[in-house]
Specification:
This protein is of the alpha/beta class and about 525 residues long. It folds into 3 domains: about 230 residues, P-loop containing nucleotide triphosphate hydrolases (Rossmann fold); about 140 residues, P-loop containing nucleotide triphosphate hydrolases (Rossmann fold); about 80 residues, no CATH class. Helix content is about 30%, strand content about 25%. A 6-stranded mixed beta sheet has the order 6-7-8-3-9-10, with helices on both faces. Strand 19, helix 15 and strand 20 form a beta-alpha-beta unit. The radius of gyration is 25 Å and the shape is globular.
Amino acid sequence: MNVLTMPSPPAGDAVRAYSLKTIGVSKIFGPLTALDDVSISVEAGEFHALLGENGAGKSTLVKCIMGFYSADRGKVLLNGAEAKIANPRDARANGIGMVYQHFTLVPSLTGAENLVISRADAPSIFDWKKEKAGLEAFLNRMPFRVPLDVPVSALAAGEKQKLEILKLLYLDQRLLILDEPTSVLTPGEADEMLGLLRGMTQRKEVSVIMITHKFREVTAFADSVSVLRRGRKVGGGKVSELSVEDMARMMIGDTPIRDRAIRADRAPGDVVLDLSALYADDDEGLPALDQFNLKVHAGEIVGIAGVSGNGQSELVEVLSGQRPLKDGRIVVKDEIFEPNRKSYAKLKIFGLPEEPLKNATVPRMTVAENMAFRTFDQPPSAWLGWWLSVGPMRTKARALIKQYRVKTSSPESAIADLSGGNVQRAVLARELSGEVDLLIVANPCFGLDFASVAEIRAQIMEQRNRGAAVLLVSEDLDEILDLADRVAVMSAGTINYVSPVGSTNRAEIGKHMAGH
């Protein structure tokens, strides 16, 4: 029988937070063991971080806790008592709530309306005078406020994320699970939100489990950490007793990590990419690029930072020919650039777009065929530009697979069968196997494991050191600070701040990301 009442709170009048333990939780999907005997412990009022590489089992574990999945073995304890959670409704009834990577609010409704309709006992007809009085009393007890009388669509990303958390607190959830909660926030917004939650855990008002890949957030805000690898818990402990190196070693095990590429000391060369007064619309016909100006020189990486949705995706689509340019001029090496295959080859432009399995490959075609997209119509793979020879394509693919350490059972395997990191490596192998003058990459390491991130960042830095101009579009500010020579902040479709990385800081960049 499912437990549909709140478990008893821990002893102590001031303690509202719940403790949680998973004991021997296992989950199997056909031949795949996603979780294997995983036990974690979160004390009441603790801020607990859940770390692991892509596919380590983090999301599967919290989905078992939330009732999205039913564990094949094991149990969940709340405040020491077993909780039978068959679905998310049971999780809510037991005081467990989750904040997802993407917002779940209704954009056209106000904050107040989103809160009230989330209640299980929401009436058919609302007494708004009574409801607003109740909401005001609720906000007076909270450590932060959000405007509740405007549509959610008018709120900033940070306010929306706060409203997601307020919704769980309004529903009296005592254990909050956060799935990459800062991915849509500026650095300032992220630190503010996590700091407020940290304060609530210290006051024993809530307990927090946070899935994250950012070590900085773990060391700054978490009390304890559990590390998963290949479906098993492989380590953890008090954050104060662990170094970043300790946690990284737990995550990767014996996986070889490529040494970080050293930044060559060189002055930027001539302008390779000149973007002048670009205008473009989004899919709804609204302005996405608004007088966008930027120059990228040979031998430098320019990182475009910004909160998701400020025109970064549309910029990359314009440069790749996937979106029409409404006005403006793109110049590459002093030539007007038209984004097509012929120009890409002539001007030695290569790229790694966001979601490469969707945007840079044909999933059902083989690894060898996908690696040949840039050269299939050239000798020795083709005669007279049309007679294809499969042998040379396979030979080249085998060489690239070995050189770029792409893990695949065969060059003839469908590229869709590869892991996300290996799809990235395969595309990079194709794009970097020739002479590169301009490299355009977008969120190259999103969702990838620790080893793949190190490999791909090293490949990007090596191209810069060889003299290529690199335009790096990334929503990961740590990635930009690690790789870029200059940072350009994008807000509302335009560049509002440019600085050498060594002459700025996270706070200054974050201020401009927020549009100030």
